[in-house]
Amino acid sequence: MYSGLLIILLPLIVGYLIPVKNRSLLHIVNQMLSWMVYVILFIMGISLAFLDNLSTNLLLIFKYAAVCFLCIFVMNYAALWLLERRRPWKTQFKQEKLPSRLHMALESLKLCGVVIGGFALGLTEWHWLTFASQASEIALLFLLALVGIQLRNSSMTLRQIILNRRGIIVALVVAISALIGGAVAALLLGLPLKTGLALASGYGWYSLSGIVLTDSFGPVIGSAAFFNDLARELCAIMLIPTLVRSSRSTALGLCGATSMDFTLPVLQRSGGLDMVPPAVVHGFVLSLLSPVLMAFFSA
Asked: In this predicted structure, what is the pLDDT of residue 1?
């Protein structure tokens, strides 16, 4: 158990210990991180094609993803709604004109296209494709090191994180309620509790959850994790502009770990500049918790 946990956390810690002061070098790290996401998702698609009883397993993937998404989403929404009732988050901000939500959704769906492309290539059953699982493990270690570097150089100090109570409170509510949702999903699907908790630990970080859980539980659970977390991001993009008017905590919490990057522009334009510090802190906290919890439940 502990060796598996160490293998996942070690590259993350090593990356976090590397300071990058040069902006152009940090830009290269960010670019490499984006490329690695596509590479690993492509490999994940190849692994899917080598599953036994392929048609049955594809139905199983979407069943797991749908049930997990609904359970986690409902639990998150209910917990965040209660938080907003008890601790209202008020503002005088008026919404700006938003970017096309359809365009942002299509950007997310491009990742599905990468998985499908890998799947199509895997169906050719070329001999060298059988090394996909080993390649994904190496790529995962490299990706985690890059994630560690990015977190270290995200300009967030410990003081800034501690002082932003709203971001931390929302992140903790999301983290705990998602795990409850994962436990309910595991019960409904007849999965081990640890598997349900691992599926819930992605917090919308589909590019990492799909990879880590594929490596630990196989391509069925890994693909279910990917689609579960991708669905979360797509729903957040569509719901933020409406939710932010009545429940800012809910609008932020449903974004999960993506509130510090992909969904941040939508949060800022929908909720104003005062949404940015909590959003960054919220995303930062969940981005730290996600790999640790996934590693723990997967080990």
From this structure: 41
Mean pLDDT of 101-105: 63
Nearest Cα neighbor of 216 from 118, 291, 104, 122 is: 291
DSSP label at residue 204:
T
Task: Show the tokens assigned to 177.
Answer: 């309620």
User: 155's torsion region: left (phi>0), alpha (psi -120 to 50) or beta?
Assistant: left
Q: How far apart are CA 79 and CA 71, in angstroms?
A: 12
Residue 129 · residue 46 · CB < 8 Å: yes
Structure tokens belonging to residue 28: 């290269």
pLDDT value at residue 259: 86
- pLDDT tens, position by position, 188-231: 999 999 999 999 999 988 878 887 888 888 888 988 998 899 88
DSSP letter at 51 equals -
Residue at token pair 């501690």: 162
Cα-flanking dihedrals φ and ψ of residue 261, to 5°? -140, -85
- pLDDT tens readout for residues 272-298: 767 878 888 898 889 889 988 998 998
- DSSP letters spanning 268-299: HHHH-GGGHHHHHHHHHHHHHHHHHHHHHHH-
Q: What's the CA gap between 247 and 76, in Å, rounded?
A: 13
**DSSP character for 257?**
G
Question: Dihedrals φ, ψ of 94, to 5°?
Answer: -105, 135
Residue type (1 letter), 69: F
Question: What value does the mean pLDDT take over residues 76-100?
Answer: 77
pLDDT reported for residue 274: 76
Instruction: Give CA separation, 230 vs 22, 225, 247, 262, 266, in Å.
Output: 32, 8, 22, 12, 16
d(CA 263, CA 99): 11
Q: Using only C-alpha atoms, what is the Rg of the chain? A: 19
